[in-house]
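for the writeup, i need someone to sanity check this before i put it in the appendix. the sequnce is what the collaborator sent (i think, or maybe the updated version? ugh). structure was predicted straight from it, no edits. if anything looks off just tell me and ill rerun, i have time this weekend
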Amino acid sequence: MPDILLRMMDESDWPEVADLIHVSTNYWYQRGGKPPIFTCRPEDTQLFCRVYEALDPGCCVLAIAGATGLIAGSCLFHPRPTHVSLGIMNVHPNYFGRHVASRLLKFVTDFADAQGKPTRLVSSAMNLDSYSLYTRAGFVPRATFADMYLPVPKDGLSHQPTGATRVRPATPNDASAIAALEMELAHIQRDKDYRYFLENNDGIWHASVNESPEGTINGFLVSVKHAASNMLGPGLAGSEEVAAALILAELDHHRGRSPVFLVPVQSAGLVRQLYSWGAKNCEIHFAQVRGEYRAPTGIVMPTFMPETG
């Protein structure tokens, strides 16, 4: 579109991008008769700008309406050693139907192609417009996840799944082992993400690891607690038992809240256990990949803050 120009985001754009994320996301859900995703203040969604910029400076492309100079769309992305992750992408409702999203997507896939890397994302199965956008661009659905939420009592949960005693809080010293486990089981690499989570300079992250009797980490789970994001993930576990123990440990850090988490739909035993704890379904998401893909051998628990990919 000749009246839509692309440029990179800078810090002065954060307030407008945050407002765009808030308005666009809520508009889409409310248009379909669902409650808004963001019940926080619009300025709280600057969290996305801050986290993505801390991890990958200069990796947000904006679509600018040439006639007004307003931001019509935005897309955050993560260059990682093994792939490029497409992060949260939004288009202002005033610019729906003007191919803004396809322009932003092509920018990111061209970037990934130039690096010779696949592009990965996690997208809503409910949003058929975005599903069509991605599949037309060559993305292939590779995994399906059940989005679940669980209201955690203020005094915590009393469940004791198998392996719970092997869970401990993660420390910055665990970052390399966590990244190595993800490379081994999920075949993607993002050491920088885990160092960032575990340093926790923002004061909003927590992480747990499941450790074998020999001291080997065989699962991990991160969570974020913020007005704009209340989720468990990213995480990875070698078994359903390990995944359940990690989920319980991170839920305990969200007492009085109802965090969302994603688990593979094929992990039937894990899903049933979560139901027995009081978890409920709220959505379905697909992991989609454009380019080379290797199926994980562990239980992947993705997130959107930042995008797991």
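Residues 84 and 119 are 5 Å apart (CA to CA). The chain has a mean pLDDT of 95.
thx in advance!!
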